[in-house]
Design goal:
Number of helices: 11
Strand content: 15-25%
Radius of gyration: 20 Å
Number of strands: 9
Shape: globular
Distance between the termini: 43 Å
Structural class: alpha/beta
Amino acid sequence: MSAPAASADSADSAASPAFSVVICAYTEDRWEDILAAVSSVRAQSRPALETLLVVDHNEALRERLLKEYAQGEDREQGAGREVRVLANAGPRGLSAGRNTGIAASRGEVVAFLDDDAVAERDWLRHFAEGYADPAVVAVGGRTVPVWASGRRPDWFPEEFDWVVGCTYRGLPPGRVRVRNVLGGNASFRREAFAAAGGFATGIGRDGDRRPLGGEETELCIRLSRARPGAVLLIDDRAVIHHRVPGPREHFAYFRTRTYAEGLSKALVARSVGAQKGLESERRYATRVLPAGVVRGLRDAVLARPGGAGRAGAIVAGVLSAVGGYVLGSVRARRSGVAFSPAPVGEGAHG
C-alpha cells in the first residue's frame, strides 16, 4: 500500500509551484544560525528548487559561505540541495537583499526565511497548499520564539511578540486572509513582484542599526492596490522557530524596538496612506492591547508572576510606538521622503 501513497505525493509536488527560498545574512556572528536555517530548508518534506543566501555587503561572510556551499560538488546534489551564495546587489539593508534574491531566483514562488530561524519540515508544503487557489498571491506562516534564557520573560506580553520578530497574540488562528504577511516567514508568487515591484529600500532593517521594520506591510498594501482581488493568507501550520538572543529579552530592547516600529509605521503611512497603512493597527490598539492589559492586571490580582509587568509593558510599548510615529511623521513631511520600489519582477530568472 505504500507505493500509491508515494505516487500521490509525487503528483502533488509536480502540480504545485516550485519554490525558491531566500535567506538574507549580514554577519558572521550568526554563522551557526545560518547553517541551521539552510539545513531546515534542505530537510523540507516538499523540496525547494533552490536556496539563495544573499549576503549584505560582508565579503568575508560571502567568501566563507561560498566555501561552505561549494558550487557543483557531488556531495550536495539532490532535490532541494542547491544553495547559491549571492552578494546584495543594492544598497545595504534587508529590503535590497531580498530584492537581489528575488531577481536571481528561478521558482514560481519566492519564500523568505530569517537567517536566525529554522523551518519545520512541512513549512513549504503548507505554503504550497495555499497556492492551490489562483487568487492567492502571498502566504505567510507562524513564527515561534526560541528564548535564549529558555523561557519567556515574565514581564514580556505575547501581544508584543512582533518585537522579537514572532507571531503575536491577536492574530486569528488557522488559515486566514490578512492585510499583510510577516517578512521573516512569508512567500509570494513571482507575478506579485512583476505587478507591484519589490521591497522598498529606505524602509526596514539595515544590519545592526535601529531595528526598523514595515517593509513587508508596505509591499503587501502596494500589491493589493496593483492587483485588486488578490488574496494574502497566513497559515499557522507553516511554522518556523526564531531565535531570540539574550539582549532582546530585556526591556531596553523592547522600548527601542517599539519606538522604531512607530518610526517605521510613519514611513509606511507616508508611502501608502494612513488609512491603509494603519488599518490593522487600529484594531490591534483598540481591541487586542486593552484585553492584554486587563489580563495582566487580573494576573497581578491573582498573584501570578509578571502580571503587573505585562500590563505595564503594554502601556509603555504603546506610548513608545506613538512617540516614534509622531516624530517619524514630522520628519517624513519635512524631508519629503518618497520610496521607489525596485522593479525586480522583470529581472527574475537572471
